[in-house]
């Protein structure tokens, strides 16, 4: 075996696909009973016709990622349904701010649409440049200097107290809800960077829902691996270093357990000091019908940011960073059936996916708190709930060992990690362990279903371990 990939999240599978297409013998080892990591879909235990996305549900980066652009999900039978509404943010008092795929419509409905257009219009017009900059490996000249010149002042404005330059309470809430995907204090450069990229994608490509669930993306990657002779192993936990070259789609601290005393001392000390960020509590609902939102425009929004206005969201993120549960937690929701009607079963039941931001390692069941938040914007929501599947942050690692303390960013949602990975190294996908590389969301460019960390790590492996300098084609055969 030339290469072993430990972990089968999108980055691990992207690394495996790249190596297999370069002609290497590849083995993927996954401890769970299903492949996919953060891109899995499983049936509800009580209503098996209802499918829940285990981690991620909405995938703007699957359309924009250079890896997936070349891999071409659509040509492989994966349908990414792009809704008219990218995301919605209900506000106190029965109002809402709506981020449409259409920039003009978004601006027309905001109190100060010109401010929103100034922030995002130039970025949406240069989406490829923006994505190339923010998903780039950060070690070379930006692929698009014009994009860098557009992003930099906006990053500084929205990542600092100058974020008040965005006018209008509704526009401020709309952007803050997007930036909150990083689960970090706001304003900050890392939340602003994520907010700018995701909001840009909301207008340039939309926020798509994979038909059939996130598993469809994983299944396409697995099919390509099987076609190229890869060995796929489920239910096997790696407790010692595999032989040969290894790519780890794992939380960095897992290397302490796998290598033990064989780790170089300085690197071991760095990993022991590694800190994970705040967590999420997962709450999935099975609903009997459509949610009765006070603001009717929200009925068309598959993705929802349920944190209220900007001050409330900022206070919630500050609380969880300080180790406290927010009185009004930041809640993100998704209703995939609005873009994929096949997610409604034969009895009219449909899933609702939610996260609530909580302190790291929280053991609190957030089902009631999330229900209260939604009920506040949609009186009568409780009457629709047929089932609740709640997993506290402290238990998320049972579903995915990378989610230490419930941190879906694997410790990478900060500016230092976004540039260097878990240790200060010129190549953040390398480790000081011979033939061992890291490709999880703890390495650049960070979290999200984009496969780029896996692609960058595989690029390093091909060059340094096998002398392969030309990257293989990822396009489908035929």
What does this 3D model show about the protein?
This protein is α/β, with parallel strands linked by helices. The protein is about 35% helix and about 15% strand. The protein has 16 helices and 16 strands. The chain has helices at about 10-20, 60-65, 65-70, 105-110, 115-125, 125-135, 145-160, 170-180, 190-205, 215-225, 255-260, 265-270, 310-320, 365-375, 415-420, 450-465; strands spanning about 5, 25-30, 40-45, 50-55, 80, 85-90, 95-100, 210, 230-235, 245-250, 280-285, 305, 330-335, 350-360, 385-390, 435-440. The strands form 5 sheets. A 5-stranded parallel beta sheet has the order 9-2-1-10-16, with helices on one face. A 5-stranded antiparallel beta sheet has the order 12-13-14-11-15. A two-stranded antiparallel sheet has the order 3-4. Strand 6 and strand 7 form a beta hairpin. The two termini are about 25 Å apart.
Instruction: Indicate the percent of residues in helices.
Output: 25-40%
Strand order of the largest sheet: 9-2-1-10-16
Quantity of strands, as a count = 16
Largest sheet: 5 strands, parallel
Distance from N terminus to C terminus (CA atoms, Å) equals: 27 Å
Task: Report the principal-axis shape.
Answer: globular
Supply Rg. 21 Å
Parts with pLDDT < 50 across at least 5 consecutive residues: none
Mean residue pLDDT: 95
Number of helices: 16
Structure classification:
alpha/beta
Percent strand equals 15-25%
């Amino acid at each position: 075996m030339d290469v072993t990939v430990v972990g089968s999240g999108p980055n691990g599978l992207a690394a495996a696909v790249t190596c297999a297409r370069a002609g290497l013998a590849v083995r993927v080892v996954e401890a769970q009973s299903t492949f996919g990591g953060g891109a899995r879909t499983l049936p509800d235990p009580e209503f098996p016709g209802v499918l829940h996305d285990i981690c991620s549900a909405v995938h703007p980066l699957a359309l924009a990622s250079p890896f997936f652009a070349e891999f071409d999900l659509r040509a492989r039978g994966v349908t990414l349904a792009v809704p008219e509404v990218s995301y919605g943010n209900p506000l106190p008092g029965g109002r809402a701010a709506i981020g449409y795929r259409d920039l003009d419509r978004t601006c027309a409905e905001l109190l100060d649409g010109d401010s929103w257009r100034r922030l995002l219009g130039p970025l949406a017009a240069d989406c490829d440049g923006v994505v190339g900059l923010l998903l780039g490996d950060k070690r070379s000249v930006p692929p698009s200097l014009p994009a860098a010149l557009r992003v930099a002042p906006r990053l500084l404005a929205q990542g600092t107290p100058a974020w008040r330059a965005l006018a209008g309470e509704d526009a401020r809430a709309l952007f803050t809800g997007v930036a909150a995907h990083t689960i970090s204090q706001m304003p900050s450069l890392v939340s602003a960077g994520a907010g700018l990229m995701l909001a840009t994608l909301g207008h340039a490509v939309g926020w798509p829902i994979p038909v059939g669930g996130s598993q469809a993306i994983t299944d396409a990657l697995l099919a390509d691996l099987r076609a190229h002779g890869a060995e796929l192993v489920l239910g096997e936990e790696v407790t010692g270093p595999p032989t040969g070259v290894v790519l780890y789609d794992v939380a960095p601290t897992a290397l302490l357990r796998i290598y033990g005393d064989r780790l170089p001392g300085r690197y071991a000390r760095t990993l022991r000091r590694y800190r994970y960020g705040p967590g999420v509590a997962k709450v999935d609902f099975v609903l009997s019908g459509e949610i009765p939102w006070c603001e009717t425009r929200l009925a068309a929004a598959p993705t929802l940011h349920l944190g209220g206005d900007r001050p409330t969201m900022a206070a919630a993120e500050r609380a969880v960073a300080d180790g406290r549960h927010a009185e009004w937690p930041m809640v993100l929701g998704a209703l995939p059936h609005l873009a994929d009607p096949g997610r409604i079963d034969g009895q009219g039941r449909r899933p609702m996916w939610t996260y609530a931001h909580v302190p790291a390692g929280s053991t609190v069941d957030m089902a009631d708190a999330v229900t209260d938040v939604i009920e506040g914007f949609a009186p009568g929501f409780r009457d629709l709930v047929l089932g609740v599947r709640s997993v506290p942050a402290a238990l998320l690692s049972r579903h995915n060992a990378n989610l230490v303390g419930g941190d879906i960013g694997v410790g990478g949602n900060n500016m230092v990690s976004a540039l260097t990975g878990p240790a200060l190294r010129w190549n953040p996908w390398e480790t000081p362990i011979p033939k061992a590389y890291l490709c999880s969301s703890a390495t650049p460019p960070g979290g999200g279903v984009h496969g780029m960390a896996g692609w960058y790590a595989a690029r390093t492996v091909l060059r340094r371990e096998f002398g392969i300098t030309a990257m293989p084609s990822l396009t489908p055969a035929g």
